[in-house]
Structures are given as structure tokens and as C-alpha cells.
């Protein structure tokens, strides 16, 4: 008995789905192996927050353990962190891992 064209399309779609799943699985494995021991873009400084691309006060800053907006403002020379980050509703509700945008001051060198 001959296969209908609809069955042939279904088998091609199944094969494509399997290949896509294998490809995505390989990408996940590859990316996780690069993050563990490969050259990373994020370095952890001794004082708390993360250094993005090796600079302590880049435009995108990840809050570290024990940091406050005041300590980040002092370190980076940006007194307007709350105004530039509308997702921060309460300045006292800052937690490790929070991503904020800062504008580093060129007059005060980063510490």
C-alpha cells in the first residue's frame, strides 16, 4: 500500500524535530563546557560586585554580596543610579545578582 503525502510530510517533520533537538543539546553541552573552564568575561573582584569585561564600573553592573546602591555609587562615581534604573522601585531592596545600568564618572577613577 502506498504512503499518503501527508504521512511523508509527517515523517520529515519528525526527523527535522529530532535533528533540531540533537543540535540544541550539543549547543547546551558546548556552552556549559566553555563556561566552566574556558575564558570567561566575568571576573569576581575581592570587594564584592562583578567586573564585567574586567572593568569595575562598566555601563552594566551586577550587584555583589553586601553591596548597596550607596557603595556602588561611591565606587563608580554615579549618584543617579536609581533614576537610570526604573526597575529599582526601592533603593533599599538591592540584592546580589541584580543588574543595573550605571554611567561611570570620568572625573573619579574606579577603585
From TrEMBL:
<keyword id="KW-0812">Transmembrane</keyword>
<feature type="domain" description="LysM">
    <location>
        <begin position="61"/>
        <end position="102"/>
    </location>
</feature>
<feature type="transmembrane region" description="Helical">
    <location>
        <begin position="6"/>
        <end position="30"/>
    </location>
</feature>
<protein>
    <recommendedName>
        <fullName>LysM domain-containing protein</fullName>
    </recommendedName>
</protein>
<dbReference type="InterPro" id="IPR018392">
    <property type="entry name" value="LysM"/>
</dbReference>
<keyword id="KW-1133">Transmembrane helix</keyword>
<keyword id="KW-0472">Membrane</keyword>
<dbReference type="Pfam" id="PF01476">
    <property type="entry name" value="LysM"/>
</dbReference>
